[in-house]
Design a protein that fits this description.
Oligomer: heterodimer
Distance between the termini of chain A: 61 Å
CATH class of one domain in chain B: Mainly Beta
CATH class of one domain in chain A: Mainly Alpha
Largest sheet of chain A: none
Order of helices and strands of chain B: HHHHHEEEEEEEEEE
CATH architecture of one domain in chain A: Orthogonal Bundle
CATH architecture of one domain in chain B: Sandwich
Structural class of chain B: alpha+beta
Radius of gyration of chain A: 18 Å
Shape of chain A: elongated
Strand content of chain B: 25-35%
Number of helices of chain B: 5
Number of strands of chain B: 10
CATH superfamily of one domain in chain B: Immunoglobulins
Shape of chain B: extended
Largest sheet of chain B: 6 strands, antiparallel
Strand content of chain A: under 5%
Distance between the termini of chain B: 53 Å
CATH topology of one domain in chain B: Immunoglobulin-like
Number of helices of chain A: 10
Order of helices and strands of chain A: HHHHHHHHHH
Chain lengths: 185, 217
């Protein structure tokens, strides 16, 4: 089958073409997924710049390990797991270095909020800082559920965790956020 | 620590509405919902230059030989975190056990033939490797791996009568390969007779090393 438009090619077809030597076809997957997971990475890492590095690394790493992608039709989920591992490693590193700081929350929250509503902006900033205090697993559950708007079943499919354990993580996250955010103490 | 009532958490999960809460919990529920209202859901768009940067690196990596790629993989710094909680005496016991294991290994004869994978002659670039899986009740068994781009339909195993044993022989290029069996087109099964490595994403791949002398697990 000939595929003229990149939109018609499935992930599996593109993966097989790249593995067969057509390296340039990988650009299709880069275009397809670069922004799809950007919000996840930005909210996990608290900074758009760090998120951009993470997405870039994940895309390169996925290319390097493309031959290990057992189910090319599930490339998106596989790429997400690579990015997820990268985000978790980055957060652990930042935590060790004590760099989950106010700067990160500022970098993410401030430039995107131009509505002038100081109170909402302050709340968003406070929430971003509080999210930075959660464990990576709790923060991920919160980001996927309340930022990306995914149902628990979909999150379970993506991360490999059970719905019950995701709910437990999330409920602990709610309690921790309540503890951290002054308005809810 | 002051915690949310379980029903308030269910409200935040979207399983309950504010009206489902008893009157004494409504104020707590409203405050909790304000917390979610502060969530920033603005889409994040990355720099347009990202595509070009990724493709530039990808092109570089694609032109490297397998040896260069292996060296880069070995030489790339990675974060490793080890958390150990041990009693001091176990460190000495572990060191003694490791020394004993090393002494045993050094004194061992050549490795015995392996049950899951066996090798015989091939060309000078490849070796015939026999894959065997005991899968009683299976309707279809395939082997997929790095040697066939994990294609689930490329290498089917043949049942040996009604014994439940499935086999196939493939010519594999010299090198290290990762693989797994695919039972009935959906279930991934690692080779019970071969060592396995984590593929980095929570699954186990079996490993076979093919040399001019044969296949080694």
């Amino acid at each position: 089958m000939l595929l003229g438009l990149e939109g018609e090619a499935t992930d599996a077809e593109v993966v097989r073409a790249v593995l067969a030597g057509d390296v340039e076809r990988y650009a299709v997957l880069v275009r397809r997924y670069r922004d799809r997971f950007a919000r996840y990475a930005a909210r996990m890492l608290g900074s758009r710049d760090v998120a951009e590095d993470a997405v870039q690394d994940a895309l390169v790493r996925a290319f390097d390990r493309l031959a290990d992608c057992r189910e090319p039709d599930k490339f998106a989920g596989w790429l997400f797991l690579i990015l997820r591992n990268r985000c978790f490693a980055e957060r652990r590193r930042h935590r060790r270095e004590g760099r989950l700081s106010e700067d990160a929350a500022e970098a993410l929250a401030a430039p995107e909020r131009s509505d002038g509503a100081m109170e909402r902006r302050e709340q968003a900033r406070e929430l971003e800082l509080a999210l930075g205090q959660l464990t990576p697993e709790q923060r991920e559950a919160f980001v996927l559920k309340h930022v990306a708007g995914m149902p628990y079943e979909e999150i379970a499919q993506l991360t490999g965790a059970t719905v019950a354990s995701l709910k437990m993580r999330m409920h602990r996250a709610y309690d921790r956020l309540r503890e951290l955010m002054k308005e809810y103490r | 620590m002051k915690t949310f009532d379980l029903r308030v958490k269910q409200l935040l999960d979207g399983d309950l509405s504010l009206a489902d809460l008893p009157p004494e919990l409504r104020a707590e529920g409203e405050a909790a919902l304000r917390l979610l209202a502060a969530v920033d859901r603005t889409p994040v768009t990355l720099s347009p230059a990202l595509d070009a940067r990724v493709m530039a690196v990808v092109r570089q990596h694609a032109t490297k030989s397998p040896a260069q790629r292996a060296w880069r993989w070995l030489n790339t710094p990675r974060d490793l975190e080890l958390r150990l909680r041990v009693r001091p005496w176990t460190v000495w016991a572990g060191a003694l056990a490791a020394a004993a294991a090393l002494a045993l290994l050094l004194g061992r004869a050549a490795p015995a033939p392996v049950p899951g994978v066996q090798a015989r002659g091939g060309t000078h670039d490849s070796v015939l490797v026999r894959f065997v899986l005991y899968a009683p009740g299976a309707h279809r068994v395939a082997v997929a791996g790095t040697f066939n781009q994990w294609d689930r339909g490329a290498a089917l195993l043949v049942p040996a009568g009604t014994s439940g044993v499935w086999t196939t022989t493939l010519a594999l290029p010299i090198g290290q390969h990762q693989y797994a069996f695919v039972v009935d087109g959906a279930r991934w099964v690692s080779d019970p007779g071969a060592p396995a490595v984590d593929d980095g994403f929570g699954r186990r791949n079996s490993v076979v090393a093919v040399t001019a002398q044969g296949a080694h697990l």
